[in-house]
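User: Could you walk me through two proteins back to back? I'd like the raw sequence and the structure tokens for each, with a short line separating them so I can tell where one ends and the next begins.

Assistant: Of course. Protein one, sequence then structure:
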Amino acid sequence: MIISLEKIFFIAVLFSVTFSYSQSENEKINTLIEQKRNFNQQNKNSTVFKIQLYNGFEAEAYKIKHNFEIAFPDYKTKIIYKSPEWKTQVGNLNTRLEADRILNIIKEKFIGAIVLEDKI
């Protein structure tokens, strides 16, 4: 079982609050909230996950995008051109778990879909 850095950080912060007696409880809570905000801000948008539906010719990429939007109107799709291929991708998802959950739903109609990790 893999534990994310955010969970480890959160557990460490909770642990430190439990054994820290130098501050009042309100001050400790405010400090934790600020640390959590800073941690999230530093790691925000550094990695996103996308589901790739297709990689190949332009006409087919647009066809798959259209078919996907009909089947799954709640998800945002986009076409990306990276020479020499066109890619049809779904979303910028925050976690691998979220991407895998959506992939399981999508794979019922788009068998070749895969999850990609993207650094931004």
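----
Protein two, same layout:
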Amino acid sequence: MPNVTLKKIADELGISIATASKALKGYPDISDATKKRVLDLAEKLNYRPNSFAQSLRSSESQIIGLIIPEITHDFFAKVIHGVITCAKSNGYAVIVLQSGDSYEKEKEQLGMLLDKNVDGVLISLSNNTKDIGHIKEIKSKGIPLVLYDRIYKLLDCSKVVINDKKAAYNATTHLIHTGCKKIAHIGGNLDPQTTIDRFLGYKAAIDDSDIEYDKSLVYIAKNLSFDDGYQIAEQMMKDHKDLDGIFALTDTIATGVLMKLKEMEVQIPEQISLIGFSNWFLTSVTTPKISTVNQPGFEMGCKAFDLLFKEIQAKKHGMLFEKEIVELPTELILRNSTKPL
């Protein structure tokens, strides 16, 4: 069955297309009786507005692009949910793309979003993004842009972040306060700001205690994966038989560590205390449940969309837009993988 057009509604009711359009949009200069006739017929014929044609007339697509590094991560799933929820309430659709932590794919996807004439872009940078020329190109074209989670500090745009350094400091300090004396950190390549800041938070907590910093206790998880944590755990136990604490960059890594240590019959937290980062749902169902830092993904997604929407509206109305950096609070979630204070 062919799509019902606005012209068909107008012809059947003997009114102009302009009048039918105004009636559907609730214009005050159209009588209530005409509005009712138009709305009743539109419902009867299952009329749907042509959003593409509307976007051509208004120069707006009512679509935004969202690029995430990995869709399987619980944190980013929450971000997607937050963005889509807030976008829908404002009449926007969302194109979700996954970079797979690939710089080249990230560039390709930004180009794809430009081709789709999106009204704005939300992006969390891949772990392998060092050159941000493709991000600057978006800005140079005047397209509203918000960075979230993994950001580039020197880029002049709105950002939604947490204080990774402070959160990591608090996590490591908790391990120290529970009596840990030899604490390892499993981090990542020092490229994304989040990875850098979590390492700096860990190191600052060690430096502020009576424990001497030992760089041999810092391990790099190249893929930030479960397998990385699983393999590194075995290596750590070989390197440091008196290890008693571990702060992992992510919950995915921490879960891998937990599985390996259990296989090695290491008692957690009696022998080694373990804390992750993000509050991934798996951390609450492992045995023991894993202590972690709660990273507010849903709220981050909502706030990122809110900032983007503000910038889109400012651009639409020719108004000056002040860039904002929003820092969301984190919370230490204490479970059974760490000893009580």
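The mean pLDDT is 91.

Let me know if you want the two compared in more detail.
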